[in-house]
Automatic annotation (TrEMBL):
<dbReference type="InterPro" id="IPR036671">
    <property type="entry name" value="DPH_MB_sf"/>
</dbReference>
<keyword id="KW-0408">Iron</keyword>
<comment type="pathway">
    <text>Protein modification; peptidyl-diphthamide biosynthesis.</text>
</comment>
<dbReference type="GO" id="GO:0046872">
    <property type="term" value="F:metal ion binding"/>
</dbReference>
<dbReference type="GO" id="GO:0016491">
    <property type="term" value="F:oxidoreductase activity"/>
</dbReference>
<dbReference type="InterPro" id="IPR007872">
    <property type="entry name" value="DPH_MB_dom"/>
</dbReference>
<dbReference type="Pfam" id="PF05207">
    <property type="entry name" value="Zn_ribbon_CSL"/>
</dbReference>
<keyword id="KW-0479">Metal-binding</keyword>
<dbReference type="InterPro" id="IPR044248">
    <property type="entry name" value="DPH3/4-like"/>
</dbReference>
<keyword id="KW-0560">Oxidoreductase</keyword>
<dbReference type="GO" id="GO:0017183">
    <property type="term" value="P:protein histidyl modification to diphthamide"/>
</dbReference>
<feature type="domain" description="DPH-type MB">
    <location>
        <begin position="4"/>
        <end position="60"/>
    </location>
</feature>
<protein>
    <recommendedName>
        <fullName>Diphthamide biosynthesis protein 3</fullName>
    </recommendedName>
</protein>
<comment type="similarity">
    <text>Belongs to the DPH3 family.</text>
</comment>
Length: 70
């Protein structure tokens, strides 16, 4: 039942502390993106706004703390 394009480890994504977004390059040229607060709330899907492909983000909740500190 997986409709995900891929599964990506959180440390392979790029975190921008200004926008609080994790991003990862999408094959369409845009980027998958998900807010850190959504991950904190249990969301684990990053969506590309241009082509609506999705990736599943692999992480532990405790991983997020080091990003919040940035
Ligand atoms: Zn895309």
């Amino acid at each position: 039942m997986s409709n995900y394009y891929d599964q990506i480890e959180i440390e392979d994504m790029t975190y921008d502390p200004v926008t609080q977004l994790f991003t990862y390059p999408c094959p369409c040229g845009d980027k998958f993106q998900v807010f850190i607060d959504d991950l904190k709330d249990g969301e684990d899907v990053a969506v590309c706004p241009s082509c609506s492909l999705m990736i599943q983000v692999i992480f532990d909740e405790e991983d997020l703390d080091e990003y919040y500190e940035k």
